[in-house]
Amino acid sequence: MFSSRQQLKMPRKMVVIFGASNILWMVFAVSQASKMEIFLEPRVAAQIGDVISLTCSTTGCETPSFSWRTQIDSPLNGKVKNEGNNSTLTMDPVSFNNEHAYLCTATCGSKKLEKGIQVEIYSFPKDPEIQLSGPLEVGKPVTVTCLVRDVYPFDRLEMNLLNGNDLLQSKDFLEPMEKKSLETKSLEVTFTPTNEDIGKGLVCRAQLHMDEIDFEPKERETTKELQVYISPRNTFISVTPSMRLQEGGSVTMTCASEGLPPPQIFWSKKLDNGNLQLLSGNATLTLIAMRLEDSGTYVCEGVNEVGKDGKEVELIVQEKPFTVEISPGPQIIAQIGDSVVLTCGVTDCESPSFSWRTQIDSPLSGTVKVEGAKSTLTLSPVNLENEHSYLCTVTCGHKKLEKGIKVDLYSFPRDPEVEMSGLLVDGNPVTVSCEVPNVYPSDRLEIELFKGETIIESKSFLEDMDKKSLETKSLEMTFIPTTEDTGKVLVCLAKLHIDEMEFEPKQRQSTQTLYVNVAPRDTTVVVSPSSIVEEGSPVNMTCSSDGLPAPNILWSRRLSNGRLQSLSEDPILTLTSAKMEDSGIYVCEGINQAGISRKEVELIIQVAPKDIQLIAFPSESVKEGDTVIISCTCGNVPKTWIILKKKAETGDTVLKSRDGAYTIHKVQLEDAGVYECESKNEAGLQLRSLTLDVKGRENNKDYFSPELLVLYCASSLIIPAIGMIIYFARRANMKGSYSLVEAQKSKV
Questions:
Q1: Which domains are seen in the chain, by residue range?
Q2: Residue 318: how many CA atoms within 13 Å on its side-chain side?
Q3: What is the model's pLDDT at position 110?
């Protein structure tokens, strides 16, 4: 018989379950009393992949029959073998399909007995694995991963990671399983090794908590001894006697480096192309009979499994000592456009050779001249291409010495230029511009604008320059001048903030005195004696306008086409004897450089009526029944009112005339009398009168003659003719005349 632990350690072999631990006894006893008994453990554990056999046995029955099934009527997933009183169910290999309660039924004659056993499945085949993210190095974090492969059921798994006796991390996997499967579970911990961890062991311990069933092992663990490294550090070089040597001398260089395991020392020399030439694997490097070409950079490296640490030392093998001086000094400040001479001189060398270059190997852009122990580099004129550090290299035999001088440039050639966007006019915004031309470097420039003692605007140009160039920078601001600003001084101050450079001037300024103009306003015109005068009268028109400077006066007359005809630039426009044609619109303009103000006045020249004519047509003596036309005309002035009246002792009668003509049809005796024409305007009036004589007809005589008929017909033609004559006569006048009927209809 095998114990359950021995059974779990027998993969792919049949495990027969006997006794209380893992053997199914089913005893089917047939006695004279017809009784049967079966003895059976309730559970058995089987590892996935192993072989397990369940045996069902009976006693007291010579020829029993057996049958197997699962409690939920699933497939058996095994093979059944019956031999006499025994029946065996073998599962090879055990899988998830075998995790059931199995029932064995034994039948003997008419008797039947059934017993069950629960098969529990698990998987815990291997010890945990410990994996490291890299070598364990003191002071550097490392991740430790503990893996348990092919475990089931993983919700019973517990993992612990220990560093020596110290627990680093513990983890349970209690999440529900979505399906039955073999899982690989892991536990990760990141820690930083210290010197105290040297010699300790990492322990990964895994436990499968299935206490209700018996199987071995329920716990597995793996131990990994910590191999802690220390990367090389504190590498140190000692040089004896010195790092500066004379030709033929010797030097000993000793190198040491700390680390775990102790670093190995390697000596190399840095070649011109940057590569290293290995010289020695010993801690001490001795060089004898030094030559000039032995000068250079020597590198010591301490190397172990986790890293390396290097230290450099510069050895200089000197020939004969000689000195090189460069003037005017280590730094020169020059304004762009000037001429700069750099001088390189050598002492204690009989036949030196010179070479000039810029530190960044740009073109020299200058002229080199050598005279004995001196070489000059002339930059004329100096420009932005010359802003470099220049190196003068002197070769004397096998030895070279190099001296440098830095050429710094600036440009600040002129005072700022102050410009206004226009004339300074009281109340009108104006933009003042302060411009600094050809400045370099522009990012060091600051411009301030003062009005009097008060700063009104400032600007710095701190933006990075995309390229070296002379820049023109400006400051603009808009303000509204007032008359109070007149006399104040506008100051534009430009500062070039390069304190580390000595040059003058570091600030420049320009000034401009403010003179604020006032545009013409409050323009007025005074006409004396009046804007309406009689023809021949003198007229004075006086114009005045306020402004600064005092406005000039310009008199003009507006023509019929709307244009202005210039007349005078005198403030007083005089008409010594006004004529009718002088009537019109007169314009006075106050003009200065700040603007124009305009005032208009209308001058009216009036003429009293004259040349009045009063006629009766066809005659002043007519017969009763005739037709007569009384017509009054005045053809010299406009705006003339004409009133026709008939005089009488009882009072004058105003006649309803049309264009100064009054027609009497069929004259009656009472129409005879004095007729008066009154022509008037604002300048005066003129009267004319005539007497109409009306002769009566003979008594009781039918009065009609051929002569009267001719007269009547002629009058019908003459009256329109007279109207036309009057019309064209008025058109010939300068302004025509006005009819009382038309001008004063309420009085007619």
A1: 4-122 (2.60.40.10), 129-226 (2.60.40.10), 231-318 (2.60.40.10), 323-377+384-402 (2.60.40.10), 417-510 (2.60.40.10), 518-606 (2.60.40.10), 612-747 (2.60.40.10)
A2: 10
A3: 84
